[in-house]
């Protein structure tokens, strides 16, 4: 399968590297508003440089991978739908839930495969928790607890266009909640503070947040986020079921432990999700089939709605 | 110091055993509406059986330990205040926040030492977390996460008079939140479900609950409770600070680990807070000094207010 | 049962405290060459001070607990046998294997219960490993690994009369090996070094040692000892079986873990075997029945023989 | 750098895959007595098929990678020395210590780089232990403990030509001992049993073994091996130093933990050293410089001498 990569920035390069490790997929074309960035990534991937419009139209391209700024996603998705290309689009799809729904209808009408960048579902630890829940190992889900902290906040420039902590960071945890609860949330409560860096608060965003979700049958999910953790990229999930409990700890940098008068010390958590020592498949992606009517019915309670009340 | 023990039921006996392990304190008198219970515990502790009124009035008694049903606490506290005795009273002090405030004013006016049964502050793991926070080891507190599950729900008879999950069980976690946040909560959000046993729901209570607290400076605390955990008495706390993070895990029944084709298996958590293998000092208590004016000012936001909105 | 305690030094006091926590046993009499030590412990235990001979002869004494210096054990055991008292004797029983066998024959002829101070068999973790082996959980035992380190070496005065590392310290590990192997060792290999403190080497002892035992059916046990560990009292055992593996880790001082840029740090191991937070029953003891003929046949390969070849 | 690969069997294919992940190295030619095996691997690596002699002589080949049966290593090493090629040779180099020394002198005389397959030095956990020892973090090394178990024994055919447990399996642990002790062993004690499979004993080999090494300054190393572990590929190392202690645990298959009435269960250890989820660099290799005179002087105590006395 031939991929057209839209956006050759940081995340575009991450995807290009992931694609490069798969046998059956290749980057055929790249596009970026910066000719230099496009040229550089084209050189590394043996791809052609094109304009976005030409790339989407090209018969050489089976699927588009959208890694451009969020405010361009809407138009690119619609264009790709018209060109009947399979679509992978980075998160968040858009800042507006209404516009996201528009994208969903466009995808449905076009009947093209569509997937967004909820890579954490492919994390080997989290996906194992989900499959063990599905196999009934812990009975029915009652409480989901998600602790998620980034090593350090992004730049203030990034913060300004990120859509805020809920859309940019907690979006992954909200997706995990949907992945693990097995039911759509029916109520959302959110609080947030600026504790890590007052400049983030001055920019109108928060850097520390907490959400509680409940479902129609009374399942509860608590999520907390911080933009800063001194000890690495901290991603932990715990699911309390009617029979037993499952939890996933962080992968540490190594398994060495030192014993001294101050106790037993292990390594910090691996530093970020594209750490070289994480298996590259953790960042992999696959083309999902056309969304079913059932999915369409669920969509008015979009992931994007969460966090708007804080 | 001579103790008068009011109430010779389950919790009264636990306290009698704790007192028996201290050198400088002894049970001088016991009282219970069941003469047989009073007689039995008197025999074990070499104490006299008295009526509650006589016990409170007795010059042989320096302090009263109130372990009677909740609806008797109010009158016993007021009587002990009049008799100028030091008071230890089980939690919850009363079902009504107003009546609890009355008790506080009575204690203040009498100028007697008063303490309630927040034993978890004396748990060696949790008290260490608090003292390390106080020493500044993790900077300022940002997020407190408390996961608390009982091994099994109490009887429906107990549920009926317990005051509900928030007053009976989460009260300890709310106290931990105050202990660790270093600031009074200014907002409380609570949700609850009956997932463990529908009979608990039918009785008007919940068995699964979650609370979010925030403080004036933006600190956040998330608590979740379940009345059932197959793997023991589960009490974990984690504090994310501006510099570092501290967490306390459960004490397991032993340190043995078995390795087999299904992986590495450790023992369950110790089963309950009066487990024989926990150091008895974890249940110890001490007489606190007269509450200061500052404490009095804080009291309108009583621990008892929490959870009333669920 | 009434106990006569011979020896009121450090270990005698440890035993007195353990006896004090048992309901059915009491110290009736104490003896020590230091009248002051005897008087002090007698005061604490409500016991009479006697001479050793009078204590052993006393009809008030059912059993003697020998906690005197090693070179007095032989005579006291023989005297107690003549007086038909049950005997508990501290380790090592004697410095000479021949004299230990003499003691065993005396005990056998007298038909009195006898027990020596291998307290580690009553450690809740190690005893659980042994009982799970006995229940067949890991199949047949193949490799036993014992890592044992003291926090710090004893004084040079103690070293001078201790009998050396193998008789004084590793004796417990050799007993654990017999406890867990389920077969008598048939070969012993030992090496030792003085690495911790050259003065220990100058005194003719070692402070670092390693032993390999094998049994008739080919089971293997490796033991290593050091007189120094910065991180607490370190006692770990691992048993590799034909089906699965069991291991016991140290009990740490608490369960608190700190996460920082240098990683995840837990507390040191509890500092010594009479740590206040260890359950006192771990130091408990019980009177064993008269040794059977089978035991007598095994005795020529006494625990005391080990380590003599280093 | 262009590699000539001698031997296209299991281990040859593992090396070909490792080379394929390095940017600066490529397989230029392959040789195998099985034309089909050579052809298949040549196809996958875009390499030429050659005879061993032609490959060694080819100007297209800078270095040879010897993955053929052990009894061919001697001649291939000598041929490569004559052709002045850099050499990587699988372990064991030969069954005879004398013949290994011959190889070493040939390498020295030719002045070519030479390396053997002690891949565990490149394991991220073990290499970190060694570098932290070198940095002085734990003071001087006193006791090294190595526990090493394979998931299951190899086939009896393999056993027959393997050279036995010490040369085939424990050779890696003996290398780790040299890597970590920082001194050459001066005494070796070994025991072995056939406990896993009596057929291994009938074939003249052992499947369970233990070794004790000591050095001139009194450092001690204990190693134990089993050919079977139900819980994965088990490789643990612990180094007790004069200041502190370092240990490396196994990498587990994932970080998920399940809590149930039977306790807390984690995943088994990763199953084998070429597991897909281990970072490929763990199997990487590099060309070492010509051995110095100091190394030459150490060589009479060859790794190959170990274990010959069992």
UniProtKB/TrEMBL annotation, chains A, B, C, D:
Pfam families: GFO_IDH_MocA, GFO_IDH_MocA_C3. The keyword Cytoplasm does not apply. Keywords: Oxidoreductase. Residues 126-246 form the GFO/IDH/MocA-like oxidoreductase domain. InterPro entries: Gfo/Idh/MocA-like_OxRdtase_N (IPR000683), GFO_IDH_MocA-like_dom (IPR055170), Myo_inos_IolG (IPR030827), NAD(P)-bd_dom_sf (IPR036291). Residues 1-117 form the Gfo/Idh/MocA-like oxidoreductase N-terminal domain. The keyword Oxidoreductase applies. Belongs to the Gfo/Idh/MocA family. This is Myo-inositol 2-dehydrogenase. It comes from Shimia sagamensis.
